[in-house]
Amino acid sequence: MIMHIGSDVVVPTKNIIAIINLDIIESAECNIEFLKIAKDEGFIEDAFGDEKPKSLIITDIDGRNTIYMSPISSVTLARRMATDQNIYFDNNYGEVK
To answer: pLDDT by residue for the chain (97 residues), tens digit each?
Structure first.
């Protein structure tokens, strides 16, 4: 399956390594440095258009790692991915098996 991650960008769910809340990433200096290096080296792709990015999606497609910045919250993206894999969450965002 594929998942819409913002703007006109879709990625295969099997290629998603991690979905991370951008607020958590920006809370540590080493993470900010990592994002700067990743941007400088061309690993970051824009999937947020005119909106403010809320999450990062790390992918591995054909051996190439790409980080997408998305305007969609990490919780929403995780729910989309879980729905694709028949995993359901309760109201407190905990996994229900």
So the answer is: 889 998 889 999 999 999 999 998 888 999 999 999 999 999 998 888 888 999 999 999 899 999 999 999 999 998 888 876 665 555 555 554 4
Structure tokens that stand for 72 in this block:
């969609």
pTM of the model: 0.78
Q: Which contacts of 20-27 are long-range, i.e. CB under 8 A and separated by 24 or more positions?
A: 20/55, 20/56, 20/57, 20/58, 20/74, 21/54, 21/55, 21/73, 21/74, 21/75, 22/53, 22/54, 22/55, 22/56, 22/69, 22/74, 23/54, 25/56
Phi, psi of 78, rounded to the nearest 5 degrees = -65, -40
Q: Tell me how far apart the alpha carbons of residues 18 and 15 are, in angstroms, rounded to a whole number.
A: 9
Continuous segment of H or E residues that includes residue 10: strand 9-12
